[in-house]
């Protein structure tokens, strides 16, 4: 069976981990670590044809709008973000901000906080609950992506080179459009423990390991808060061990409305403290990882 026959699209080639050349990170470190800080705003008034993650159906739209849950999202930017920033400041990791254009316009004070820390920005769509899908026309999808990228550049002072779609949403056209718009990486796919070049000219997939995501574990799966840090660090330890043979990747995705709560921040602080003490770790922005993978032609 050909590699192509195993897929229903041609965005990337099939590649089993054991069949690849060994991946080497700078300094021959075992694992690359990227911290993504999600900067989002949720819409209270989506159009009827908008696509949202069905697991958030109670807050997407309808006449019985869940204002309580929307207040949790707002809490993340009003209160939780300051706790997150304090925790990150103590360890000085490089940070990539997945910035939604609606959040950028609503919270300029937070944009200033990110810029003061020299964080990197990735474009993150418009609203957190408005996914890209094939319902969009090619023109509308291109305009949405271009508008988000341009707004990040205008309001944040630097043009992003990465895309992290709301809810992992894509159409069959999305990778090609991202490539055309000059993106270097996309963080929508959850199919690997190593970044890899996609079949477009320059686009690199930075794996979004959804099974380690705070929203997935704590909100959707109702994991007990004190188990979150343990699970993440056990995954990190295994990936670190495997990285002795071929480099691995781990992404720590932080949503302030989850990990910024008073009862959750201590668990994030435990993770950051452990990561800061670990050896064999290349802490990098997502664009640094993508450039390295593109330059060496891994995958």
Structure description:
The chain contains 11 helices and 9 strands. It has helices spanning 57-60, 67-89, 101-106, 108-116, 138-156, 174-180, 214-220, 225-242, 256-259, 265-277, 286-296; strands at residues 31-39, 95-99, 120-123, 162-163, 185-186, 196-197, 204-205, 248-254, 281-283. The strands form 2 sheets. Strands 1, 2, 3, 8 and 9 form a 5-stranded parallel sheet that branches. The chain is of the alpha/beta class. It has one domain (24-296): Glycoside hydrolase/deacetylase (TIM Barrel, Alpha-Beta Barrel). Helix 6 (174-180) links the parallel strand 4 and strand 5. The longest helix is centred in the N-terminal third of the chain and has 23 residues, at 67-89.
CATH superfamily: Glycoside hydrolase/deacetylase
Q: What can be said about the biggest beta sheet?
A: 5 strands, parallel
Q: Determine the strand fraction and express it as a percent band.
A: 5-15%
CATH fold name = TIM Barrel
Number of strands: 9
Number of helical runs? 11
- The separation of the N and C termini measures 19 Å
Uncertain parts: 1-5
Average residue-wise pLDDT: 87
Summarize the amount of helix as a percent range: 40-55%
Structural class: alpha/beta
Radius of gyration: 19 Å
What order do the SSEs take from the amino end to the carboxyl end, as H and E? Answer: EHHEHHEHEHEEEHHEHHEH
